[in-house]
Amino acid sequence: MVSFMQSEHLPSFSLAGRVALVTGASRGIGRGLVDALAAAGATVAITARSSADAEAVATEVAAAGGAASAHALDVNDVASIRGAIDEVVDRHGRLDILVANAGLGANHAALDVTERDWDEMMGVNARGLFFTAQAAGRVMVAQGSGRIIAMSSQASAVGIRDHAVYCASKGAVNQIVRVLALEWGARGVTVNAVAPTFIYTPGTAERLDDPDYRRAVVERIPIGKVGTIADVAGAVVYLASDAAAMVNGAILPVDGGWTAQ
Ligand code: NAP
Predict the structure, then answer these.
(1) What is the residue with the minimal CA distance to atom 9 of ligand 1?
(2) Quick one: fold of 14-198+228-249?
(3) What are the boundaries of each domain within the chain?
(4) Which residue's CA is the nearest one to ligand 1's atom 21?
């Protein structure tokens, strides 16, 4: 009888030898993704608005036995994005994985949204993500391989009360991902997104520490709990790995079933 469990049929989740860049790596989900990518074997280019924050994370990763470098990157500033990506390529010789994680999330009743609220959130979540993906895409298309993973949200797929601007910004993320996947897939670069439900981080702690808010959130999640950073990291490492080689243009929900309703 022929065995189908031959090594060429087994998926690989290893990121050994890959260079991965994470935006917004100072805290929250981005900080956790750095550890997950390093544990999977990647060299991680840690980026944050403040180079001191990026250095602090790189020191922690090195102390835990991982390989990392630190770079300043503000997604509101296209020159800063391009400068950081040039630095990473100069330092490591390539860029295999981009995790475009930097993002803002806040509640605004639609009647109260200001032009500044709109510009800030769309600026970081949509414009910033696009130009980060473009800068990484230029390197990856030239090298003929790469993985781009954007941080979307369940708010890209369904309306969430008091989140009009956030929902719009994450809907834009999904559409950017789909178009880049079409343009770059045949050139060796896959582009996908992860779309989490509420994850407890510094960005959501204030809301989720309110017992009424948390109860209302948990009631909407069929699994019955908010997500963890490890839940998001599992999806990101998968999409970055060879196991996901055929996945392109996908928006992977990590939402306990919220958007299945
Ligand atoms: P967080 O704790 O508020 O952290 C946000 C990160 O983004 C920080 O590292 C922050 O850096 C960075 N950032 C903000 N503006 C930036 C800019 N202009 N340039 C570069 N970095 C910038 O957020 P989080 O909860 O971990 O969320 C991370 C991502 O996941 C976001 O895209 C968010 O929309 C998405 N997401 C979160 C949840 C959730 O429930 N937590 C659910 C779905 C999707 P500084 O330290 O410099 O401010």
Answers:
(1) 24
(2) Rossmann fold (3.40.50)
(3) 14-198+228-249
(4) 24
